[in-house]
Amino acid sequence: MKINGNEIRPGNIIEHNAGLWIAVKTSHVKPGKGGAFAQVELKNLRNGSKLNERFRSADKVEKVRLEQKDQQFLYENDGMLVFMDTENYEQIELPSDLLGDRRPFLQDGMTIQIEYYEEEALSCQLPEKVTCKIVETEPVVKGQTAANSFKPAVLDNGVRVMVPPFVAQDEDIVVNTETFEYSERA
Fold first, then answer.
1. Are 45 and 54 in contact (CB under 8 A)?
2. What domains sit in the chain, N to C, each tagged with a CATH number?
């Protein structure tokens, strides 16, 4: 689907310079001389490189729609994550670096959303909140209930998060996978 250059919004995925790019930031500029344009910061979906590009309203760009599929995580094998399509039970292998630093939050049997362009998997969306067990933290100190005081904790997946003082070791907590922050008790 072709759209005008000034219609690009953050989150849109476009085909540009023989690559797939996601618009990270857009700002519309009207200089004193010349026509208005959209200054767009783009991030390559395949290799992560960034690009700043100007699009005039007369420029046409190809907007791409990604197909989203729910896939169930089965196991990891030599740096490859094996997922199963929940509709037709086909198995696919994806590199574990597709998840980046959110990889530790992927749990056995978890259903995640994978975005495809034609047959190529481009990105994975973990659930926003995941339940984890605390394996190591400081003991609860009576009377230590000052507002906004947090203590470090290590989760069962090795990730370090800050938790409120009332949370003890071996408790299950809910963690936000976007910000790596404590959300609530499980």
1. no
2. 2-63 (2.30.30.30), 67-125 (2.40.50.140), 129-185 (2.40.50.140)
In contact, 136 and 127? CB cutoff 8 Å: no
Q: What is the pTM of this model?
A: 0.71
Report the distance separating Cα 136 and Cα 163, nearest Å.
11
d(CA 5, CA 135) in angstroms, rounded, equals 51
Which among 167, 136, 123, 132 has a CA at the least distance from the CA of 149? Answer: 167
The Cα-based distances of 90 to 25, 75, 161 in angstroms read: 36, 14, 36
Summarize the confidence of residues 140-151 as an average pLDDT.
70
pLDDT higher than threshold 90 for residue 39: yes
Structure-block tokens of residue 74: 């089965």
